[in-house]
Amino acid sequence: MVKKAPRRTAERILEVSLDLFNRFGEPNVSTTLISSALGISPGNLYYHYPAKDELVNALFDRYENELRPMLSEANGIKDLNGAWQLLQQLFELGWAHRFLFRDLNDLLSKNRHLETHFQQIQIESLSTLVHLLQRLQSAGILIMDGGQIACTAANLMVILNYWFSYEYVQAPRLAANPERGQLSSARGAQQALGLLSPWLKAEDRRFLQDMSSSKLPSPLQATTP
Q: How confident is the model over 182-208, as pLDDT tens digits?
């Protein structure tokens, strides 16, 4: 049996940092806590990432690198099922990097790299959603004009950016449970796609209702931490 090569220290640092940031929030996690969780010296951590901002930037770059292919592939979506799948993917990716959105205002105010790059992917994400809605309009699925498309795309961005903060407010003590990710992401996708319902023809509205038919419990209904 071939032994797996040990993971590089830099990659282990990123994985543990992401887990701690997601569980406790980036402002509440020190480099000392990260090095302790890894079982390495602070000096070893600083050798790879001399400042916590560099950890945040590296994790954001991973998020950005995973997001861009999703945005590119969205150009081929022309139906509600594809829109549903895209939104689920976007929420699942957001959950995997939820510390970015939980502490977004604080991170942007103190990190120039994050500020400029986050603004750019916001522009690209909004453009992707606008073009998606335009394709659904051209296919006769959505009955809306240009202004309604722009407004709905902006509302979708608001939900994508702040959905996990909304869920956190409802049940803060349960937010650190990693097993909640799939359920929380599904609720977010359901909520986002529901924005399209008023603009659908009757048959497409029924299709949307069928896709969203499962009754997902709210965070307040959860009983296990």
A: 888 989 999 999 999 999 987 888 777
Instruction: Assign 59 to helix, strand or coil.
Output: helix
* Phi and psi angles of residue 218, each rounded to the nearest 5 degrees, phi first: -75, 165
52-73 vs 80-96: helix axis angle to the nearest 10?
170
Q: CA-to-CA distance for 169 and 225, rounded, in angstroms?
A: 15
Alpha carbon separation from 107 to 40, 53, 112, 145 (Å, rounded): 26, 9, 9, 36
Euclidean distance between CA atoms 190 and 159, whole angstroms: 11
Q: Does the pLDDT at position 20 exceed 80?
A: yes
Question: In the numeric block, which tokens belong to residue 80?
Answer: 């509600």
For residues 162 and 31, give the distance between their C-alpha atoms in angstroms, rounded to a whole number.
Answer: 27
